[in-house]
């Protein structure tokens, strides 16, 4: 979606119409280009700031309509606080803030990428633009009418004014690849499950081929042959057949082991025979956010031509109650050979991942695997919506993910894995059961279950994104229900550690 805006870069020049946005510090100081563009307005800003008690505090804004002396229809001054201390995250946030201040109906806006000291450096200006782009996203595919005041000009032109257009364009190119990946992930999560069922999800991944990603779709027959009975058991109650999609991007030497990303793709989770209560069940169209992130990430890596070999594997199913649905008490033999007793058909994500993790490690022998899954309500009880849960069998991978979380703002918090939890998932009849005895430590027992399906001691991390993937924290760069969480985090992991 995100068709509300055309983003471009231009040299600093005072615009003759539309909206002008400039940044100031917490002493109300402006940059040189802004001072020049606003010189005809005299001490207007000073007086307006006094009247509004606007001090330039980070995140605050002064909004002036028809500013006297200027040609623009609206002047917005955004406080950037202590401008010497700004980090990447702050520039993203400023971009989001600026975009959020542009009225829906405006057809043209100019944003000065400048701070009191100087023009923003190319990387900072490009981060600002990324923030603008992420904030501009709307999912309105199914809106046929607009409420009054909600009308948006179909193509608001947003120009980011910079000092070195070529350098900023270059810095923005890789960020745009990532932004497009985030948008792709958000669109997939926001789609309803009557539209986005497993075969349709798989079909949409084929678009990655245009970026040079090799895409392979496994159907039920192929999965049966591989012995993916844990995954197939989840999907057997649905009239929509399950799929597994393998996506490969080769940007490094042919022989180099790939990095692996695995996603839970439950297009809709009714709970199956252990059916969920009606209230809020509609949210379970987002139970494929992990898989959506992997698709968005593969887009980002390919579109920016990352110098890495990467493989993404997603398990896509629909969990429905039906005459043919899996029952509590059923025992399935997973691809790994381990047998699983189904206690609760609503603990389906781990069954899907059991086979996909096993398959990915055995077939691709990746350097590491990271899986993403909206796996448990328990992780929301533990961490709320501010952090995703991180579980790992490898300290180095865990530390790297934590650092990338702090850098991108997609925060993760490490939770424990330990053999002491194993007794909670040992089954009376099979090798393992799919829920813990009792409900304590629900996110941990789920992760402990997954660990049993990580073949050959592959370094592995599991991100429980039940609180992050949808209906999550609203930020200046995300107002969407489907957040696209994880694309920026994992792109950064690859860029910072695996592209040498
Ligand atoms: N998809 C849900 C988890 C979920 C809940 C994600 C809320 C996002 C928001 C998962 O399949 C599930 O149903 N988990 C159960 C596990 C339980 C049956 C052991 C849960 O968390 O209640
Ligand atoms: Mn479930
Ligand atoms: Zn689920």
Determine Rg (CA atoms, Å): 24 Å
Largest sheet: 8 strands, mixed
- Beta strands, count: 17
Distance between the termini: 34 Å
Question: Topology, please?
Answer:
Elements: E1 5-11, E2 19-24, H1 32-37, H2 44-52, E3 61-65, E4 74-79, H3 88-101, E5 108-112, H4 122-136, E6 156-162, H5 165-190, H6 198-205, E7 214-218, H7 220-226, H8 229-235, E8 243-250, E9 259-269, H9 289-303, E10 309-319, E11 331-333, E12 339-341, H10 349-364, E13 369-373, H11 377-383, E14 388-392, H12 395-408, E15 412-414, E16 432-433, H13 442-451, E17 460-464, H14 487-497
Parallel strand pairs: 1-6, 2-4, 2-5, 5-6, 9-10, 9-13, 12-16, 13-17, 14-15
Antiparallel strand pairs: 3-4, 7-8, 8-10, 11-12, 14-17
The structure holds ligand BES, manganese (II) ion and zinc ion (ZN).
Keyword list:
500 residues; alpha/beta; eight-stranded mixed β-sheet; six-stranded mixed β-sheet; 14 helices; 17 strands; 19% strand; binds ligand BES; binds manganese (II) ion; binds zinc ion
Molecular structure report:
- The chain is an alpha/beta fold.
- 33% of the residues lie in helices and 19% in strands.
- It is built from 14 helices and 17 strands.
- The chain has helices spanning 32-37, 44-52, 88-101, 122-136, 165-190, 198-205, 220-226, 229-235, 289-303, 349-364, 377-383, 395-408, 442-451, 487-497; strands at residues 5-11, 19-24, 61-65, 74-79, 108-112, 156-162, 214-218, 243-250, 259-269, 309-319, 331-333, 339-341, 369-373, 388-392, 412-414, 432-433, 460-464.
- An eight-stranded mixed β-sheet has the order 7-8-10-9-13-17-14-15, sandwiched between helices. Strands 1-6-5-2-4-3 form a six-stranded mixed β-sheet, sandwiched between helices. The chain has a three-stranded mixed β-sheet with strand order 11-12-16, with helices on one face.
- Strand 5, helix 4 and strand 6 form a beta-alpha-beta unit.
- Helix 9 crosses helix 14.
- The radius of gyration is 24 Å and the shape is elongated.
- It starts with a strand and ends with a helix.
- The mean pLDDT is 96.
- Ligand BES is lined by residues 269, 287, 344, 346-349, 374-378, 435, 442, 466.
């Amino acid at each position: 979606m995100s068709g509300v805006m055309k983003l471009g870069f231009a040299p600093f020049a005072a615009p003759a119409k539309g909206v002008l946005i400039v940044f100031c510090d917490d002493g109300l100081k402006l940059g040189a280009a802004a001072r020049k563009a606003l010189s005809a307005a005299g001490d207007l800003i000073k007086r307006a700031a006094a009247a509004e008690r606007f001090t330039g505090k980070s995140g605050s804004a002064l909004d002036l309509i028809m500013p006297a002396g200027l040609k623009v229809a609206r002047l917005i001054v955004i406080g950037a606080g202590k401008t010497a201390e700004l980090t990447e995250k702050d520039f993203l946030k400023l971009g989001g803030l600026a975009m959020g201040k542009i009225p829906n109906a405006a057809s043209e806006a100019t944003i000065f990428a400048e701070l009191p000291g100087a023009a923003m450096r190319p990387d900072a200006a490009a981060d600002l633009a990324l923030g603008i782009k992420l904030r501009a996203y709307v999912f309105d595919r199914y809106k046929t009418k607009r409420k009054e005041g909600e009308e948006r000009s179909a193509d608001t032109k947003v120009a980011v004014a910079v000092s070195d257009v070529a350098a900023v364009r270059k810095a923005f190119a890789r960020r745009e690849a990532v932004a497009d990946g985030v948008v792709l992930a958000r669109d997939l999560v926001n789609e309803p499950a009557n539209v986005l069922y497993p075969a349709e999800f798989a079909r949409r991944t084929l678009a990655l081929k245009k970026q040079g990603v090799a895409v392979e779709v496994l159907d039920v027959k192929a999965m049966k042959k591989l012995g993916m009975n844990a995954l197939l058991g989840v999907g057997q109650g649905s009239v929509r057949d399950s799929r597994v999609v393998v996506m490969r991007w080769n940007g490094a030497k042919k022989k180099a082991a790939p990095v692996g990303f695995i996603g839970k793709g439950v297009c809709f989770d009714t709970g199956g025979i252990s059916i969920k209560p009606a209230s809020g069940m509609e949210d379970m169209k987002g139970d494929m956010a992990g898989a959506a992130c992997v698709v968005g990430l593969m887009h980002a890596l390919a579109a920016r031509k990352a110098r890495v070999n990467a493989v993404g594997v997603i398990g896509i199913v629909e969990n429905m109650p039906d005459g043919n649905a899996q029952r509590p008490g059923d025992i399935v033999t997973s691809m790994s050979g381990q047998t699983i007793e189904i206690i609760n058909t609503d603990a389906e994500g781990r069954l899907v991942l059991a086979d996909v993790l096993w398959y990915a490690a055995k077939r691709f022998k990746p350097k590491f695997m990271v899986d993403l899954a909206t796996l448990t309500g328990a992780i929301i009880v533990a961490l709320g919506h501010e952090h995703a849960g991180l579980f790992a069998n490898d300290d180095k991978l865990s530390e790297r993910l934590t650092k990338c979380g702090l850098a991108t703002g997609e925060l993760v918090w490490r939770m424990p894995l330990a053999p002491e939890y194993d007794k909670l998932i040992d089954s009376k009849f099979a090798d393992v059961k799919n829920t813990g005895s009792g409900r304590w430590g629900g996110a941990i027992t789920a992760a402990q279950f997954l660990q049993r399906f990580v073949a050959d001691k592959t370094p592995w991390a599991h991100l429980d994104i039940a609180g992050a993937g949808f209906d999550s924290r609203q930020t200046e760069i995300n107002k969407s229900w489907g957040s696209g969480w994880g694309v920026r985090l994992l792109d950064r992991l690859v860029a910072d550690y695996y592209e040498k």
